[in-house]
Amino acid sequence: MHPDTEGIKRDESKNCLEASVQPTDLETLLDQVGLSSYLPVFHEQDVDLQIFLTLTDQDLKECGIQKLGPRRKMTSAIARWHSNAPLRSTVECAYADKLEVEMQELGVKLTHTLKALEQAKSMVRSFCCAKIH
Question: pLDDT grade, residue 108 (50/70/90)?
């Protein structure tokens, strides 16, 4: 292995390099997702990596990150950090993130629909039992 690529593995399926170790500071994380220019904003707000990993989209707006694109990349990086996924910034990753969110939303909708179905089923049983007695 070449010394410059130590600690990095090649993902042949996507033909890109990804860090195999999570960043240990905010500067490294922002650099990995191509947003190091926003580091001064976080320094001004006394936000370190630990705090950054708790920020929401609304928090990022309050810090002064007004553009949707950078906020989306940051919230995606935060989510990937918590799921121990690589922090790559590629089209494939963005699409995968979108699909994951859609799947979660569908799961929530399915759960609500199932609860509504169970309630309707219970109401029909109650109604039928009341008519018989």
Answer: confident
Residue 34: CA count within 13 A, CB half-sphere: 8
Query: What's the CA dihedral at 68, 73, 78, 84 to 10 degrees?
Result: 160
Are 71 and 60 in contact by the 8 Å Cβ rule? The answer is yes
Provide the 10 A C-beta neighbour count for residue 88. 19
What is the rounded (10 degree) CA torsion for 74, 79, 84, 86? -40
Joined tokens for residue 80: 């990937």
Domain boundaries, the chain: 3-89
- How far is Cα 42 from Cα 109, in angstroms, rounded to an integer? 36
* CB 28, CB 38: distance < 8 Å: no
pTM: 0.52
- Radius of gyration from C-alpha coordinates of the chain: 22
Mean of per-residue pLDDT scores for the chain: 78
Class of the CATH domain delimited by 3-89: mainly alpha
